[in-house]
Amino acid sequence: MTREDAAVTLRGISRSYGRGNAAVRAVDNVTLAFPRGAWTAVMGPSGSGKSTLLHCAAGLERVDEGQVLLGDTDLTAARDRTLTELRRTRIGFVFQSFNLIGSMTAAQNVALPLRLAGQRPSAAVVRDTLASVGLADRARHRPRELSGGQQQRVALARAMVTRPDVLFADEPTGALDSTSAAVVLDMMRQMASNGQSIVMVTHDPLAAARADAVIFLRDGRVVDRLAGASAGQVAARLTALEVGP
User: Fold this and answer.
1) Is 224 exposed, middle or buried (0-12, 13-18, 19+ CB in 10 A)?
2) CA 198 to CA 211: how far, in whole Å?
3) Does residue 159 belong to any structural domain of this protein?
4) How far apart are the first and last CA of the chain?
5) Based on the number of CB atoms within 10 Å of its own CB, is 116 exposed (0-12), middle (13-18) or buried (19 or more)?
6) What is the SS3 assignment for 211?
7) Are strands 213-218 and 221-227 parallel, antiparallel or unpaired?
């Protein structure tokens, strides 16, 4: 894959926590490219390093070794201020806990990234973004007045309002019931079909099977990749990693 084809490129990255005998190498010399305009799921047993990999790829954590590229932008060489600006403009985030601000309405939550970037978002932009996730009629509702699935859709709208190069999602359906999860995954599938680059960490084979490809980690290393796999095939591979030597 050429650099032009990759939304995010990881070159020999490693990330460790702790020191001496207590050090844990969460990501171990990973080289990987996430294709532009595609949805990639990242899976692995507990402690495999998948969330750390996501955070490094998104510039939330610094790597100890290697290089992280967002398109042609080197995140490993970027200053903290530059990384903050990139996270407000070219990178979108969706997390399991939604991370909405309870005192703000849905519309205000969606507008927040643009305001933090020094822009004055128009009501039309915010309204259209909420409409894209089916919540145009919930613009004035606060998070406590929304279901879990609706809150996650507001979080999706907030992540997408800046039209980011890449949407990173860490267990985006982990706190949702199956019906709400299916709605959120349908929306992510539509985003990917429209050319949005998505990198998603999940433990759920049903969610991973909606992606274009699934990357499997074990002990901080990439050990397999499946493309176009069914939920059963994804589950079987994950089980093999959990019980294998």
Assistant:
1) middle
2) 9
3) yes
4) 31
5) middle
6) coil
7) antiparallel
- Examine residue 155 and state whether it is found in any structural domain, yes or no: yes
Number of domains in the chain: 1
Take residue 135 and report the two structure tokens written for it.
């919540």
Burial class (CB in 10 A: 0-12, 13-18, 19+), 78: middle
What the block records as the tokens of 71 is 């398109």
- Render pLDDT for 14-25 as a digit per residue (tens, 0 to 9): 999 988 878 889
Contact 160, 94 (CB under 8 A): no
Tell me the pTM. 0.93
How far apart, in whole angstroms, are the C-alpha atoms of residue 26 and residue 52?
A: 7
Distance (Å, rounded) from C-alpha 157 to C-alpha 155? 5
Res 245: pLDDT:
64
DSSP state of 235: H
In-domain check, residue 234: no
Amino acid identity of residue 112, one-letter, is L
At 178-203, the pLDDT tens digits run 999 999 999 999 999 999 999 999 99
Three-state secondary structure call for residue 117: coil
- Of all helices (H) and strands (E), which one includes residue 106? helix 106-116
Domain range for 123: 98-163
Q: How many other CB atoms sit within 10 Å of the CB of residue 234?
A: 23
